[in-house]
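Reviewer 2 asked us to include a model.

Predict the structure of this chain.
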Amino acid sequence: MDRASYPALLRADTERLLAAGEGRLDRPVPTCPRWSVERLLGHVGRVHRNAAGWLRTGGRTEIPPAPAGAAVVAWVRDGLEELTEAVQSADPHVDEQTFAGPQPASFWVRRMAVETALHRIDAELAAGEGTTPVDTALAVEGIDELFGVLLPFRALGGAGALGGAGSAGSPAGSGKTMHLHATDPALAAGEGEWLITFDADEPSVVHTHAEGDVAVRGPASDLLLLLWNRASLDRFDVFGDAALLTCWRDEVTI
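Predicted model (structure tokens):
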């Protein structure tokens, strides 16, 4: 995806999140233990403002607490506008400063698009009226981001600083391999396939069709949700050492 593609997805998922959450602020969020929908919305408003601050200043900024009650809905919308303005004002040809060091100029808008899509799913699960799949191309990029940026950052001691409700774990150092295969017809050959090797220092990833100790097949959206512990295993075709996949899911923290 190019940088111009993310803002529309970010806006659409923010609006879906608010639609799912409005009028249900006191409901528990099953995928974020101890969180209410109100807290979930407040979190999204804060991470949008945090990303905007990084884009404006190149570092962390002080973010005010979210307002209580129904006022949080408008606060989230205001945060989205602040983030949108910061994205539009940033130089698209200059690397962005991030918690994981300098990254390409699409980093923050992609990070927020993925983050918001995941939390939109959280709100929809809390509402109990069904979920809308994450955009296929965004889901693929979300998986790339997890293995290419977030887990390596965690391996360097950055756990808890991923900007989300939690951080994803891995069976680090096992030497085991996991093959993911996205079954979406729109994806080109190899585009939706990952072979992940859990090396001693950090996972190594290649886009390839290959056998792993465990293989998982399903739509890209579902694979992203599985990796972030938001989808049950019965939605997938699983081959090989399923215990490795269970280990991964047990290490995902919220």
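Residues 159-169 have pLDDT under 50 and may be disordered. The CA atoms of residues 196 and 215 lie 10 Å apart. We have added this to the supplementary material.
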